[in-house]
User: Fold this.
Amino acid sequence: MEPPYVVKPLNEGSSVGVYIIRKGDNRPPSVLASPKWNFGDEVMIEEYVPGRELTVAVMNDRGLAVTEIVPKTSFYDYDAKYAPGGSEHVVPAKISDVTRLEAMALAERAHAALGCRGVSRTDFRYDDTVGRNRLIVLEVNTQPGMTSTSLVPEQAAYKGMSFRALVRWITEDASCGR
Assistant:
């Protein structure tokens, strides 16, 4: 695959071990040979999608909002996700209504197709570069984070739900076994 592309381990999360290989990089051999690369023999290689990082939390089978994630690093890596100030979260994302509705619908459909219950979060790349307007689903997080920098609590707060009410809803939903 011609660069740019993304190298990901199959058995990690939170962008641990993710590398973006760009045109002119000589990193692929050194990255994969590095002792730091301790993620097994198989990796996933995927197209690098330019554009913006978006996410939608789905709660009770309905999308809450679309957040744009603006990392302070070169991409939304571990530090951008968990370090205070590592990224800016724009809720609601400054996107067209058409794109917002498409992202919400795709997240809801992915949640249902995977048989998710409770809360999930679907991550997207929104390629709005010149001449393009495509929304790419990256992944569905079936156990999204609940830290002070996490996206689901922010979207719930945007919809008027406190962190305490969110945790209570998740707990009650899990115990009812719907």
